[in-house]
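Table 4 source record.
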Amino acid sequence: MAEQLAGLADDRALLGRTSTAERVSDILRSRIADGYFPPGTRLSEDSIGGALGVSRNTLREAFRLLTHERLLVHELNRGVFVRVLTVEDVEDIYRTRSLVECAVVRGLGEPPYPLDGLAAAVDEGDAAAVENDWKAMGTANIHFHQELVALAGSERTDELMRSVFAELRLAFHIADDPRRLHEPYLVRNRQLLETLRAGDRTAAERLLETYLADSLEGVVEVYRRRVGEDGTL
């Protein structure tokens, strides 16, 4: 927990002089998405509030916002915890991803497409693999799909998917073998990138549909092995 709190203290400068619960929730959401707070982690009001330099009331409102986004859960007389997703949650996340991501690719219009962000995410994943850092590989994979969604040029779509990808990170954290979960998608991310570079959005959509179906199958397999039906580890 000390390492996570030190990272939050670094984010304190982002709050500026007009700190709000929304900005605190943005920081915590990003930290959850990047894997600093794994599922089941209890979030201490005193420790996190102190690290960010915000009031208890502001932090509680931020917790409430993230609970509404299904990233946190409040347990009576126990506190606030990062949610442990159920299989049904995972299936719904992927249903949403398929609807949105495939629609983005389908609606790209005429090439060439602005693919620098996708290319950077692919390189980020390759670098993580070289270092055998599979947690970082998971983060790079999420960045890849965030950049894919960003091709729509829609702030509303980006905002919608931001919390979906944060929930996805919670799902990834359950994996006892993250290399097995993430490594196959290094090649598939690059294949998607190259297909889009070639301007073939129809083929890219087909690749993406299969990609997401296979990814869902892998994550659900992990969940059935590691998580109870009630979402307990």
